[in-house]
Amino acid sequence: MISYPKQIELKQEIVEDCFRKVKEKPSFLPIVASPKEK
After folding, report:
1. Residue 28 is part of which domain span?
2. What is the pLDDT of residues 1-28, one digit of tens each?
3. The whole model's pTM is what?
């Protein structure tokens, strides 16, 4: 079981990783931002 503060850190890392992927591939953003439109 991961302690609560570590869970928050992990989520932050995931979010930051997503932002990095979006910066590398801008076309990746619309797919994540609006899946309902497709």
Report:
1. 4-33
2. 667 888 888 899 988 988 888 788 767 5
3. 0.46
